[in-house]
Amino acid sequence: MKYSCSFLYLTFICAFVLFSCTSKLDAGNIDLEAWKKDRDGCLGLRLQHTEELQRIKNTFLAKYNQEIIKTFGRPDRVELVDKSQSFFIYFLEPSDECGLKMEKEPLKVLFRLNAISKVSEVTITSLNP
């Protein structure tokens, strides 16, 4: 019992150090304050950064999910595909949460995260994961 408490305590300390040491990533010319204000893409502020995002998207590969959250804010949606991968979704165009009638799927940024919470793919698409 003593060893399991020590192991649990050590695991907690390691996780705390790992996640507290993450910092914001370089997002190029993207206005991150405007990005964070534009939840679900309802204001249309994110759409103007599509080209910049396309240019720098590969710099986010192998980054931890906490770094993505610190940079872009809480994702608009998180989809768990299976135990080994999930997606962070940020809408560039207004989503169905904006109260608008949707004629097509909105443009969005998908960050695919692997089992160890690292980004394995970044896609700008209107398709769902």
TrEMBL record:
Residues 1-20 form the signal peptide. It comes from Cyclobacterium lianum. The lineage of its organism: Bacteria, Pseudomonadati, Bacteroidota, Cytophagia, Cytophagales. Keywords: Signal. This is Lipoprotein. It comes from the Bacteria.
